[in-house]
Amino acid sequence: MLREISTLLAKDFRLEWRQRAALGGLLLYVGSTVFVCFLSFSLRGGTPPPPAWNALLWVILLFAAINAVAKGFMQESAGQRLYYYTLVRPQAIILAKMLYNALLLTVVALLGLFLYTVFLGNPIQSPGLFVGNLLLGALGFATTLTLVSGIAAKAGGNGATLMAVLGFPIMVPMLLLLVKVSKNALDGLDWSVSQSSVLTLVALNMIVGATSYLLFPFLWRG
């Protein structure tokens, strides 16, 4: 299983390197969105208040995650998926996709946070809690959207639209927790105030990962 996951990961990294335009477009999206936000608030004579700062950051990261994960399964044809089916186990495929998307979204989230603080200021009072919550958000987006991407790819048709329709309602509970914890980090509240929300986020990530591991083989054989 580990050998299959490592092989699939190496394949995804090679494909991403060959298609650098897609990665560049994703980074350009994040950078240009942050810059537009900067221009909008600079015209009003200042930086956004912490609640708006927090909400805008998560909106940018959410749509960046959807764009990044959407191409995971959809760039592969039905023939390629059948070929993978004869070589590796479906559990290895979904775990490799989740791990790759988690690494990609972690890089995008950290880069987005860096650009965001450069252009729009840094109101974070508890950096450790905020960055930890950001990493949990990247992992949660990766696990949830990877499974949704697999479902949309098997459904055929306009997979990107189907992924957005299926993914957004699923992401709402996670987004509410992420926004709550990051708001606590902006306010400098003690870790104990956010402990239950952070543990809930960890539990959600574990549940989605376990559900994907158990159910993806049935989806893959469909």
Automatic annotation (TrEMBL):
Transmembrane annotation, as ranges: 21-43, 55-73, 94-116, 128-148, 160-179, 199-220
Protein's membrane topology: Multi-pass membrane protein
Main location: membrane
Subcellular location: Membrane
Keywords in alphabetical order: Membrane, Transmembrane, Transmembrane helix
Pfam families recorded: CcmB
InterPro entries, A to Z: Cyt_c_biogenesis_CcmB (IPR003544)
Top-level lineage group: Bacteria
Family, as annotated: Belongs to the CcmB/CycW/HelB family.
Identification of the protein by name: Heme exporter protein CcmB
Protein species of origin: Hymenobacter ruricola
